Amino acid sequence: MAALFAVLACLAALSVSGAAADGFDDARSASEAEAVGEHGQALYLYGRAIASGDLDPISQANTLYNRGALHAKLDNLVGAANDFTRAVKLRPDFSLGHRSLAVVHAFAGRDIKALAAFGRALHLNPEDAIAFNDRGTIYYKLGQLDEAVFDFTQALRLEPAYASAYYNRAATWEELGVPERAADDYRALLIIDPDDGVAQADLKRLGLDP
After folding, report:
1. Distance between CA atoms of 116 and 187, rounded to whole angstroms?
2. Which domain holds residue 137?
3. Which of 155, 153, 163, 207 is nearest to 188 (CA)?
């Protein structure tokens, strides 16, 4: 799960002055502690920064996001969901926050909430290939296969070498009973990586040539 969450780096560039110093210092120190694997210390410092009252709303949202990403890395989905929810309340235009909240909902099996959060993320950032691909997996799980194909196709429009989206769309084409289109996606994967053994095996399973 950790790879799905990008830690915001913007706190490192914040200026620190006057009474605000303690909260900002704690937020930066938390990021530094996390970077060297001191997760317990990082959580403590993120919490102290959030509770300090020193941070402006955007910095508070970013710090909540960073702590939520760490909770997710540690498989604490409840903590992650709570922090991401608080972050997007402070920053309603925070597309990455909405997408990360959607991912947590998806991992927790809250598919309808995941779809809603992915929708908010894509409304804010319609160029987010990852959000399209991830939302497509929810549609696939729910049996909404046409919607899944649409989302995987949008992800590939934005990122033409997005291997995961090709695999996901191929699986959806197979579920729809269109193996020839699935084969086209497996062949596209072999153009990206001629040594892709999974795509080669899938084409062989379908009885089709690379």
Report:
1. 33
2. 127-210
3. 163
What is the Cα–Cα distance from 119 to 21, expressed in whole angstroms? 37
Give how far Cα 99 sits from Cα of 3, 72, 150, Å. Answer: 13, 13, 18
Average pLDDT of the residues in 128-152: 97
Would the pTM count as exceeding 0.70?
yes
Residue pair 70/101 in contact by the 8 Å Cβ criterion:
no
The number of folded domains in the chain is 1
| 29 CA to centre of own chain | 25
Query: What's residue 8's pLDDT?
Result: 43
Within 8 A by CB and 6+ apart from 29, the residues are 45
> Domain containing 155 — which CATH number?
1.25.40.10
